[in-house]
Amino acid sequence: MHNNNELTLGAPLSGPVLALRSVPDPVFASGAMGDGIAIDPLNDTLHAPCAGQVIQVARTGHAITLRAANGAELLLHLGLDTVELQGEGFALLVKEGQQVRAGQPLLRVDLDHVAQHCRSLISLLILTNGEGFDLRPLTLSTVQVGEPLLHISRRANAGPQPLTQEQSGQQASARIKVAHRGGLHARPAALVRQTALSFNSHSQLTFKDKSAPCTSLIALMSLGIGEQEEVLVSCQGDDCQDALQAMLQTLGTAMAADAHGETPVPAPAAQGPVEDGVLPGVCAAPGLVYGPLVRLNAMVLAEDHGQHAPEPQRQALSTALDQVRGEIRHTLEQARQRRDQQEQDIFSAHLALLEDPTLLDAAEASIAQGRAATHAWSAAITEQCQILQQLGSTLLAERANDLRDLQQRVLRALLGEAWHYDLPAGAIVAAEELTPSDLLQLSAQGVAGLCMAAGGATSHVAILARGKGLPCLVALGPQVLRIDSGRQVVLDANGGRLELEPDPQRIAQVQQAGETQRQRHALQQQKAHEPALTQDGQQIEVAANVASSDEARDAHQGGADGVGLLRTEFLFVDRQTAPDQEEQRQAYQAVLNAMGDKPVIIRTIDVGGDKQLDYLPLPVEANPVLGLRGIRLAQARPELLDQQLRALLQVSPVQRCRVMLPMVTEVAELLHIRQRLDLFAAELGLSQRPELGVMIEVPAAALMAEQLAEHADFLSIGTNDLSQYTLAMDRDHAGLAARVDALHPALLRLIAQTCAGAQRHGRWVGVCGALASDPLATPVLIGLGVSELSVSPPQVGEIKDRVRQLDASQCRQLSQPLLNLPGAAAVRQACERLWPLHS
Ligand code: PEP
Ligand code: MG
């Protein structure tokens, strides 16, 4: 059916669009698989770019081919080298042969898992039978699912794609084992096709009882040939011998990228048999605690045989959904304020799930048949959970937990049940499986630890438990649910053990370890309000990074010597209009007031790039982190920055306010702002000016520290961005997270150079990036010449305590050689040896 000659394809994923040649994979980039386009996905569901039939689904679930009504065959390939995951992280939502509508969800992907275990998430849309079509990209910027992406038109003279080539009676055939890792998936199949196309002969592969012409990628992939499986290659035509040799060569040689592909990390397994009275589990968050075990049960619905009028049920479900969405948005807002990316990612996914048409349509269909809203919602979720669990992927089965979370939350909202668990303080909670929202609730109620019969160490709830410092064991099996509530147990998450009969000696040991930790914390807190002096008398200011006056109040109570970084963009985001000058002044004044007589460093707005404001349209950037962000906004929207500077000048006392500029790369940017401040101060009749400092966040600024320090009152190193720009690694890239380490010797060199440059002009240097909150880094930073550390508020006491244990001159001596070490891991090891923690 070739009736639709012109076709516009909608984006199958949301995210930045890349030209095919920019894809970091030679087979795709060279067009060997066909022409197309790529997207670096930000969402987790692949949608159909047009209506069509699913003609091929990769055995490993990472790629799907659709045939559009005009005959175009479209390969949708998620990530690079994702075949190696063997299906882990992918949930197919459609089957081979199925007709799909444009925009229909086809495949769901666990972005965290795939990003961590594969080369790249960059996903492709390839026209695999492009011979008869012209293809034209419609955009190369960021797209949302469904937005126009590509235009394809069928050439006027294009007949049906020839399935056979020039043939003669000559034939040659041979058998060979396919050497490609993961078998004949999309990329090796493309090489086979390319090889076949360079000969006159018609080549085909036969596997089991099916044959496929080598000119058709789809047909090749549909054979489902695995690695090391034997195929029959047949070539027919005048150059059949040459063609056969070339085909054997292509099939029998693993691709270079395959040979060097990353080995997926094996999933953690429960430990083997252990002694009586101990349940073995898998550590999802470390820690050692003792306390009463308390069981939590999930909500179970009574059977519903009634026939309900649909409209009130529809209304009830809609209200309940709105309520839960509102709660999740609130959680998201709080996570955003704390800059807790993991929590944001998890609950953004929950919000998206609550809007998923598959779920809503299923619930609506049940309601239309007379079911109660509770049962309709519950059944819709159960059905999706079953699909995820039947895919045979542990990871996807773990994601069913997120759905169950929403099942319970919406049910609670529907039934109006107060959502609060009755628990004694210090309880160790046992449940079949806890959900992310349970975890937030339990953590707020002060539980000591978590045990789950099911669950996995990579689930969202595990990630959250780690972030909250709550020891957590998963995969303990159903026995954990048979333990009487109230029994005193030891949860040794590090050792993967739930000890059901701890003897008095063991209890004493666990309590002692907990006590030591608490005492250390209490001592640190007791002295948190005193200045932090090194053993040889150098004072290090330990300030706090905050985003609001509430946080500033907590920081002040926690002993912070000041605010080292107020991220003012939090005042500007998530609203429809910009805050006016007076609103800004009040917000900055509130932070000053919350800090008593301590200094407050206020950073001017750092938006632009990927942090867009609804009311501040900026040009779409091909490369946002290298675009108009930070101080560069002064160039794009000068009036916004002028207004902020005016508001800052009006706080009182202005000497307690220090202004800091983000993303500075050269002196002119600093001088420009100094002139604006002078001008506005003169307009306002002010005799005092706030100090003006710059952030050292890009290598250029570190290398120019001396020149900047000539005109700045202070420098503050933003190690988060400085790491990103020095190591050329996205600071939010899940797969690179462990390597974006600011203790890399290259960063240490830039920090040393910054301090040396500042010293020449008698300026002080602080660190306000996350490295300042890492106690392992404290001696190195002091050693390199940093005199202010701006840390996350709860860590003020801990970092002050660390400073007091150090000798600054010894730190100076021992830090220099670290600059010559080969990498960040070597620096960390050396720090652990030279300045052990808790010594
Ligand atoms: C930094 O880059 O280290 C920094 C403190 O700024 P932000 O994290 O707000 O970009
Ligand atoms: Mg920064």
Concise overview:
This protein is an alpha/beta fold. Helices cover 37% and strands 19% of the residues.
What does the model show?
The protein is of the alpha/beta class and about 850 residues long. It has five domains: about 150 residues, Glucose Permease (Domain IIA) (Distorted Sandwich), CATH 2.70.70; about 80 residues, 2-Layer Sandwich (Histidine-containing Protein, Chain: A); about 120 residues, Phosphohistidine domain (Glucose Oxidase, domain 1); about 110 residues, Enzyme I, Chain A, domain 2 (Orthogonal Bundle), CATH 1.10.274.10; about 300 residues, Phosphoenolpyruvate-binding domains (TIM Barrel), CATH 3.20.20.60. The protein contains 28 helices and 35 strands. The strands form six sheets. Strands 9-5-6-7-11-3-2-13 form an eight-stranded antiparallel β-sheet. Strand 6 and strand 7 form a beta hairpin. It is globular and about 95 Å long. It binds phosphoenolpyruvate (PEP) and magnesium ion. The site of magnesium ion has 5 residues, from helix 23.
Helix and strand content put the structural class at alpha/beta
Q: How would you write the strand order of the largest sheet?
A: 9-5-6-7-11-3-2-13
Instruction: Tell the overall outline.
Output: globular
- Output the CATH class name of the largest domain: Alpha Beta
Query: What small ligands are held by the chains?
Result: phosphoenolpyruvate, magnesium ion
* CATH architecture label name of the largest domain: Alpha-Beta Barrel
Describe the main β-sheet briefly: 8 strands, antiparallel
CATH superfamily assignment of the largest domain?
Phosphoenolpyruvate-binding domains
Please report the distance between the alpha carbons of the first and last residues. 76 Å
Poorly predicted ranges (pLDDT <50, ≥5 residues)?
158-166, 256-273
Compute the average pLDDT: 85
Based on CA atoms alone, the radius of gyration comes out at 31 Å
Family: Belongs to the PEP-utilizing enzyme family.
GO molecular function: kinase activity; metal ion binding; phosphoenolpyruvate-protein phosphotransferase activity
Domain HPr: 171-263
GO biological process, one term: phosphoenolpyruvate-dependent sugar phosphotransferase system
